[in-house]
């Protein structure tokens, strides 16, 4: 039971005088991480596009839904597990793909993988990771110590050099990643004032390009190795990173190339969701990239119900604004199969590396379970639209 964590905290405090090493909710993680991070790293992580209207809308959308707890329902047996793409997850939670995590902690994605596998939470490793995907997979699957083997998916930023994109997919298959998540909303960075004012783009100093630099197809496009001529390698990265020409036909093409499940991340319109499924995708991630791309875009939670109506039965993951157990419950009630945790995890990483990630996940798991059972629901499968009312009704 995840909620034993609550008992542990109280017991350690009351019997041993020890308080938790880190805060236990989002604002605390955010504030403490702000103190630790450089101004550039903090701006990159916390910042969003434009006036950050969409980032705020993501949170406001959660506040427009309220849970009505029901009483006197037997919740003595509880089950937080869900089945996603034929695999059982202990909780409806995975880690969102996040790039360049060495700006938050020196061990970057390797620490994230360790923290995630200790909590049994699947991790989606980003193409823009600061560590090559093979290193992340090794950390995920490392069962030394008391860690269990973790579960990983690979997030693909689809290069305009299709052979490089395909090489990433082949490497992900070989490394043991279990699904491909194609992110389609960020083939170019949006107007991000917090980064612009600090002129901060970590990729230009070689952070977040490890998957490219270590790729044999990418290397074959260079006259000299990335070690011999790092500037040329970064220039090539800049010219082929994103692919504005992608269409649904490319998803259909990818379907023919790999037997791994494919999810498309960054979907906000029901017709796009339908087109992804028609092209052979197994599901979508409803997301506006945490408000980091189109400022003024609709809150991600508000996009969810129409997409569920359009492609219900396919796998639907959700992110953008998930901060606590109640948010997880609301997204599930509106039809998501599971949620992705983004910034809360990055702040945990900044606070304490693998231990900080583990702590944040443990808090979210316990908070979710408690919220669910105290609302009178013993099983995730029973979370549905009847748990919610609109705040303005
Ligand atoms: C610092 C940072 C880096 C990100 N890098 C990636 C990435 O490499 N690939 C990707 O698909 N999404 C990336 N995202 C978006 C997340 O996967 C996710 O959609 C977003 O964080 C959800 O919003 P939230 O963190 O506000 O909940 C990034 C987000 C942040 C904050
Ligand atoms: C040049 C684009 C790199 C983007 C990678 C990280 C990301 O997705 C983000 O939101 O930042």
Please give the count of helices. Answer: 16
The neighbouring-strand order within the major sheet is 4-11-10-9-8-7-6-5
Bin the helical content.
Answer: 40-55%
Structural class: alpha/beta
Q: Report the bound ligands by name, code or SMILES.
A: flavin mononucleotide, the ligand CCCCCCC(=O)C(=O)O
Cofactor: FMN
Binding site for FMN: 97-99, 126, 155, 183, 265, 287, 319-323, 342-343
Binding site for glyoxylate: 44, 157, 192, 289, 292
InterPro entries: Aldolase_TIM, Alpha-hydoxy_acid_DH_FMN, FMN-dep_DH, FMN_HAD, FMN_hydac_DH_AS, LMO_FMN
How are the secondary structure elements laid out?
Layout: H1 4-16, H2 26-36, H3 39-46, H4 53-63, E1 65-67, E2 82-84, E3 87-89, E4 93-95, H5 108-118, E5 123-126, H6 133-141, E6 152-156, H7 162-175, E7 180-183, H8 193-197, H9 210-213, H10 216-220, H11 230-240, H12 248-257, E8 262-267, H13 270-278, E9 283-286, H14 300-311, E10 315-318, H15 325-333, E11 338-341, H16 343-374, E12 388-390
Parallel strand pairs: 4-11, 5-6, 6-7, 7-8, 8-9, 9-10, 10-11
Antiparallel strand pairs: 1-12, 2-3
Domain FMN hydroxy acid dehydrogenase: 18-393
Keywords: Flavoprotein, FMN, Oxidoreductase
Protein name: L-lactate dehydrogenase (Cytochrome)
